[in-house]
Automatic annotation (TrEMBL):
Residues spanning the membrane: none
GO molecular function, one term: glutathione transferase activity
Gene3D superfamilies: 1.20.1050.10, Glutaredoxin (3.40.30.10)
GO BP terms in the entry: glutathione metabolic process
Lineage: Eukaryota, Metazoa, Ecdysozoa, Arthropoda, Hexapoda
Residue ranges of every copy of the GST C-terminal domain listed in the record: 89-214
Name assigned to this protein: Uncharacterized protein
PROSITE patterns assigned to the protein according to its UniProt record, in alphabetical order: GST_CTER, GST_NTER
Subunit structure, as described in the record: Homodimer.
Domain of life, source organism: Eukaryota
InterPro entries attached to this UniProt entry: Glutathione-S-Trfase_C-like, Glutathione-S-Trfase_C_sf, Glutathione_S-Trfase, Glutathione_S-Trfase_N, GST_C, Thioredoxin-like_sf
Domain GST N-terminal: 1-83
Length: 216
């Protein structure tokens, strides 16, 4: 029986989990939740996940977990045939964890601060403060990629799935200019060749359909 994943299709965090699952060949039972109808706030869903966040995983033994970073680490640790995506070496894993925390606490948080008012509160533009915040994230990532092919080294890890999903979403609202961020731009081009990238592409198209009409 496949693990169940409660989702909203355009979500960047969801796309990171789907990339991880596709990369390790894991099938998931996807159950769509409509945020605009507040299906994530029903008593049944709140009993499962009091934070009412998506994605939320329910494994085949009833184990419940949310937060995309935690879900990826769990799925790869349990179902992958090697530790390459989430290395067991303590220093390598620590760097992967640092990148995951950066995505959670800085990159995706910034993306949410920019887009939530547009999607849910009717804001119609990205102001200069938002642009500056996005460029702060891009500058950090450009630094992270110095001397590395991928975000935590020369091999793909689950941290890349988080960064790819967040950064391709950022690019919709605040363009990533190759002349300013050559390493970041090259990184995203390499990402398109990854076996699991199609899972990001499909959700990104849904994300663009929501966000593009909100941009002036």
């Amino acid at each position: 029986m496949a693990p169940t994943l409660y989702i909203t299709p355009a979500s960047p965090p969801l796309r990171s989990v789907l990339m991880a699952a596709k990369t390790i060949g894991l099938n998931l039972d996807l159950q769509q939740v409509n945020l605009f109808k507040e299906e994530h706030k029903t008593p049944q869903f709140l009993k499962m996940n009091p934070q009412h966040s998506l994605p939320t995983l329910v494994d085949d033994d009833g184990y419940v977990l949310w937060d995309s970073h935690a879900i990826m680490a769990y799925l790869v640790s349990k179902y992958a045939t090697s530790d390459s995506l989430y290395p067991s070496d303590i220093k390598t894993r620590a760097l992967v964890d640092q990148r995951l925390h950066f995505d959670s606490g800085v990159a995706f948080r910034t993306l949410t601060q920019i887009l939530r008012p547009m999607i849910f509160q009717g804001k119609k533009n990205v102001d200069q403060k938002d642009v500056d915040s996005a460029h702060d994230v891009y500058s950090f990532v450009e630094t992270f990629l110095e001397g590395r092919e991928w975000i935590a080294g020369d091999s793909v890890t689950i941290a890349d799935f988080s960064f790819i999903s967040s950064l391709t979403s950022f690019n919709v609202a605040v363009k990533i200019e190759e002349c300013k961020y050559p390493k970041l731009a090259g990184y995203l081009k390499r990402a398109e060749c990854l076996p699991g990238y199609e899972a990001n592409k499909e959700g990104l198209e849904a994300f663009i359909a929501i966000v593009k009409p909100l941009l002036k």
